[in-house]
């Protein structure tokens, strides 16, 4: 039975779900937070050490300004209102991605949340914000060149945002879309990928547990027979 150390999720379909309910895309983004909370609880119960959630990509800046503003406000409110709960659940929060483009207020809240939770042990949530995998890999190589270090797979891995984390065992993408969307391209080399038809707000505990249980019984060869 395969152990599960790291689950990565592309939480796709929030906007479409909101429109499907004959409401706004932003209504769907807000509903998606409830699913996040459910998945966090199951991950803790299943003793999964690492959970990486793709929340905002480098490409998402192309969206309408009203939607971007709503997403940033949603992030701000989530971190403000849920920080005590994260601490109570012994959850560590780590942001992966380029923080520079975010407003000063958001950066301050992000840094505060990371500092307050850095000693927690039950689950590490890696929140991918302004994240793009191609940029991450390029930045890693630039760092090695700047340090005049040898460029090899191990060195590149050590200079990614996910340094010292195990690569994801599982990638889940909801929303009935079958692509990686510039997410953890280096780290997903040998991950088992599950594409889920349901939109993210409809994804539930049973769906998640089915995937986890299916993974546990997959024969993983890593290039061997």
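-> sequence recovered:
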């Amino acid at each position: 039975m395969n152990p599960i150390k790291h689950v990565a999720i592309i939480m796709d379909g929030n906007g479409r779900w909101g429109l499907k309910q004959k409401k706004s895309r932003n209504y769907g983004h807000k509903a998606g937070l409830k699913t996040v909370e459910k998945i966090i609880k199951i991950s803790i119960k299943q003793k999964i050490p690492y959970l990486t959630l793709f929340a905002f990509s480098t490409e998402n800046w192309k969206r309408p300004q009203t939607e971007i503003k709503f997403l940033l406000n949603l992030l701000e409110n989530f971190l403000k209102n849920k920080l005590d709960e994260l601490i109570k659940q012994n959850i560590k929060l780590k942001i992966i991605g380029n923080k520079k483009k975010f407003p000063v207020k958001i950066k301050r809240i992000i840094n505060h949340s990371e500092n307050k939770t850095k000693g927690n042990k039950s689950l590490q949530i890696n929140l991918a914000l302004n994240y793009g995998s191609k940029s991450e890999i390029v930045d890693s190589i630039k760092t090695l060149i700047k340090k005049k270090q040898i460029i090899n797979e191990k060195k590149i891995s050590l200079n990614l945002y996910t340094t010292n984390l195990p690569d994801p065992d599982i990638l889940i993408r909801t929303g009935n879309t079958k692509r990686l969307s510039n997410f953890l391209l280096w780290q997903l080399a040998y991950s088992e990928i599950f594409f889920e038809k349901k939109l993210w707000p409809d994804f539930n505990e049973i769906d998640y547990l089915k995937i986890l249980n299916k993974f546990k019984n997959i024969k993983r060869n890593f290039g061997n027979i």
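The mean pLDDT is 95.
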